[in-house]
Design brief:
Helices cover about 25% and strands about 35% of the residues. The chain is of the alpha+beta class. It has one domain: tt1808, chain A. The strands form four sheets. The protein has a six-stranded mixed β-sheet.
């Protein structure tokens, strides 16, 4: 007689919040599962910091840039995560179940890594695209030396790719990113 696999424990969002309060590492929460987030490299951290600095210099009130310490909840899907860089325009709206999680980003930047690139470009991007306030997702891929944007348009989402020497116009927040400047941060780390 074959044995059945042990049933998985399904966590509530409240249990996830309790874990995050005491955990030494960050976790994502989705569909009752808690996933440890991979640690970043110096290159990853340098690129995220550079993008944060570039946006902070250009943003006009009421828009503000936030680091990866910001907790985001996608109410439409229940995903709770920590984007690398987030821009919110106007007051932050909080998750009714957690005052530490915001729900209304205007722009999200993810710095890709080998281990998470497929997830960030696929399932995670699909979660982000369900956020009503979100106008643009920026994916920085220092391995292939390019930046991708996913911009909300009337018919859905439009993807564009940019290489060294290009300037990315982030119309949703009236800012630009020079690809060479962003990628150089990763090379110098």
């Amino acid at each position: 007689m074959a044995s059945a696999p042990a049933p998985r424990h399904r966590y509530t969002f409240e249990e996830y919040l309790e874990l995050e309060q005491v955990a030494g590492t960050r976790h994502e929460f989705y569909d009752g599962e808690i996933y440890a987030m991979a640690g970043g490299t110096p290159e990853h951290a340098a690129i995220a910091a550079t993008v944060t600095a570039i946006l902070a210099r250009q943003l006009i009130s009421p828009c503000r840039v936030y680091s990866s310490d910001l907790r985001l909840r996608v109410l439409a899907t229940g995903l709770a995560t920590y984007p690398d860089v987030t821009v919110i325009c106007g007051p932050s709206e909080r998750d009714p179940a957690s005052s530490t999680h915001v729900t209304n980003p205007k722009l999200i930047v993810e710095v890709l890594s080998k281990g998470t690139a497929d997830y960030d470009r696929g399932e995670k991007l699909q979660h982000y695209q369900r956020i009503a306030s979100l106008a643009c997702v920026v994916l920085v891929d220092h391995e292939s030396a390019r930046i991708e944007t996913w911009t909300r348009v009337d018919t859905g989402w439009k993807q564009a790719a940019f290489a060294e020497g290009d300037v990315v116009a982030l119309d949703a927040v009236a800012c630009t990113l020079a690809v060479t400047e962003v990628l150089a941060a990763g090379r110098d780390a």
